[in-house]
Amino acid sequence: MRYVIIFLFVLIMSSSHAQSPDDFYNKSLAAYENNNIDSALNLINEALAIDSNNVSYYDLKGLIHEDLQEFQLAYEIYTQALNRFQSDSYIYSKRGLLLQKVGEYDYSLEDLTYAMKYAESDSIYYLNLTNRAVTKYHKRDFESSYEDLINAYKFDSTDIAVLTNLGAVCEEINDPDNAIMYLLKAIEVDSTYYPAYGNLGFLYQESGDYNKAIDMFNKVLEFDPSEPYGYSNRSYNWMKIGNTDLALKDIEKSIELFPENSYAYRTRALIYIELGDYSKSCQDLQKALDLGFTTNYGTEVINLQKEYCH
Question: pTM to 2 decimals?
Answer without folding.
Answer: 0.75
